[in-house]
Amino acid sequence: MSSQSDVRKIDIDLVSDVVCPWCVIGYHQLAEAARRSGIEINVTWQPFELNPHMAPEGENLREHLANKYGTTPSESRAARERLTAMGAELGFRFNYADDMRMVNTFRAHQLIHWAETKGKGGAANLALFEAFFTERRDLNDIGVLCQVAESLGLDAREAHEMLERETCAAAVREQQAFWQQQGISGVPAMIFNRRYLVTGAQGVERYMEMLKTLAAETNSEEA
Predict the structure, then answer these.
(1) What is the 3-state secondary structure of 49-94?
(2) CB–CB of 68/102 below 8 Å?
(3) 56-74, pLDDT tens digit by residue?
(4) How many CA atoms lie within 13 A of 198 on its CB side?
């Protein structure tokens, strides 16, 4: 019988967009659950665009939410306050402002894909969360994306060339299409060990239950 420390890492495909606040919350809840339970996880970020037809200049966040979901200013304010409090509990700083803009994220996903080939896909995704939600930077701006790449120790000039030439665009589109074909229509969506789909941010306790169940299942399969 294997001990918990012998269990292989639990693989998780995390379908996400870098402008999705619940993706930030869900990831940090999952990471905290893994830390508390002592179960190792291997997260692979998968691309999803909340707003694939967003114009290059973006759109005011409050106006965007009002147009897309019918969110009122008071509802928007309450949601931002709730997210800010939840993020603070998990060690992430949401820094919302009334002039914050929603942007197109296709280039950001290309950067993540490219960074993944360098072994830094996860780090890139987390850095982009911070760039958007904490620093309020434009993730459609190639210069901003190159600065994020450089902050991770990657070659900014190589990143710039990749983004200008869109050398990773086809691969990202292929990944997006794959997950859409699997029925993913909203994020965050987490697929555990390519078997179990969980949507939304479930909370630390719920993720702990899932990880422990999967660890026990893996134990019994490998015993």
Answers:
(1) CCCCCCCCCCEEHHHHHHHHHCCCHHHHHHHHHHHHHHHHHCCCCC
(2) no
(3) 889 998 888 888 888 888 9
(4) 20
d(CA 199, CA 218): 22
Task: Residue 94: count other Cβ atoms within 10 Å of its Cβ.
Answer: 20
Residue 85 one-letter amino acid: A
Residues facing residue 101 across a β-bridge: 60
Amino acid letter, 167:
T
| pTM greater than 0.85 (yes/no) | yes
CB proximity list for 196: less than 8 A, separation 6 or greater: 210, 214
CB 68 within 8 A of CB 27: no
| CB 113 within 8 Å of CB 16 | no
CA-to-CA separations, 13 to 16, 42, 92, in angstroms, rounded = 9, 8, 21
Which amino acid would we find at residue 126? Answer: L
What Å distances lie between residue 150 and 104, 158, 216, CA to CA? 21, 10, 41
Percentage of residues of the chain with pLDDT beyond 70: 95
Q: Per-residue pLDDT tens for 158-178?
A: 999 999 999 999 999 999 999
Nearest CA to 69 out of 49, 50, 47, 46 is that of 50
CA distance 220 to 223: 5
Report d(CA 141, CA 160) in Å as an integer: 11
